[in-house]
Amino acid sequence: MKIERLKVKNFRNIKKVDITFNDFTVIIGQNGAGKTTLIESIDKFFNKTAKMTDSDFYRFKTRNPIEIEILFSRENFPDELLKLTGGYKIKRVFKYNESPSYVTELGSNMFKDLSEFIKLIIMRSDESQYKNAEDKQGTALNDLASMVLSEIKGSLDDKINEYAKKIRKQVNTEELSNDVKVEFESIAKNIDVKIDWVPTEFKLKNRITVKQDDVYVDIVDSGSGTQRLVMYGLLNYHAKQGDRKNRISAKTRTHLLIVDGPEIHQHEIRNKSFYNTLKKISEYTQVVCATHSRSFVTIENIFNIRMLKKTPKLTKVFSCEKKDESTFKVPFRYSEIRAALFSSAVVITEGPTDEMVINVIDKDNKLAREGISVINTGTVNNIPNTIKLFNRFEIPCFVVWDLDNNCNLDSKNHIYKRNIMIYKLQQKNSRIYKRITSSYTCFNESLGSYLDDLLDKHPRLKFRSNRDDDKFRVLHDDGEDFAFIKQIINSASNIVPKILHDKKSS
User: Domains of the chain, with CATH numbers?
Assistant: First the structure.
């Protein structure tokens, strides 16, 4: 029983969204795009006691009901549930100050508790998962511990209850019952009383402790980073036991694991390891992950990526298609390019020197304040496919590259075609090149030739290196103004679209 599709209307900062899921789905997007809200909508859908306050309604418009609709896959969909729903689509509707209702394809309310069929485990980005549950039961930590302990714990519960029955047989309560019966006869002769005890079902509670300074303390009293590591360790163990655990789950309930912000409190190297763990778990348990980490944006995971982007009317969802794989294969090799997918816009340069020059001249962090990343593609030939990658996710690009007009005759045809391709990707037409526009800038020859022109104005400077970065450092140390580079930065800083962000208003 897995989620194929989710539709949400009028919930918090989401007016409307329609998103599909795979076995392993990675949700990305800028802050405020609705990643956490999407996760909370799934929680509200499955939580039978869920309630909505006025702040949960989009822009506080409580007259518009909140609708959360899930289409489940046909695979392993329980027959018992199918009889109640008449199909694989279930909608939950929340009206203000009214009890929520499940609406199915049969058109009637369904009162079945969905948690009987699917176990939802949410690792939240805040600390509420550790601290807000009585006795720490029902939290993500406890749920993960239960997954790991399920086989052993079940057999222990049975053994304890078996021992309790044996102890009961060894305790004679007959004499006590007779004595009490005598006292009752003095009051009412027709009453026959027997006193006995029956062992109630005994359940073991999970307990997790961590050794700190040679003393074991409760996990709740540990730091957030340690708590996350423990959860990752439990998941890693669960992944290694995958096949066996899958058989256990098949006998009980399907699990749905949701991780919000796996990078929280963790180093990047651990994120890579955790990504591999979740990928392994997704082979038998559906996994949904909302993240800002480049470690989860990989070429092998390209078809599982969903990018959320807010617009005034709805939340758009962007994803890649099969035909994109060969086009995006090279750009995805560069971690800086993958990281730029989380930016509001990007400045694309052809090499590290161009990137360095722009970052150094932008000493006021004008680009960074607008959420614009500056990246280099390693070579100018990688620029076209990099532009196509960001166009796929509707991330605005500003491209800085060299026309290489001083190249040899053999290369001229190839370079001309390359320049035309970049130009058309940015301008959608074939006008004559301009040095600086609203979406690109190009050096007539190269950045090096531009720096050479500046060096010619400083004949007193002694310069012997042919390296462009050396030229730049000499000029920069001498106090050169770099007016042209500043024009590039000013133009690039304006590529972020001025979108009217949705805000709650009473």
Answer: 3-139+253-309 (3.40.50.300), 141-225 (no CATH), 321-492 (no CATH)
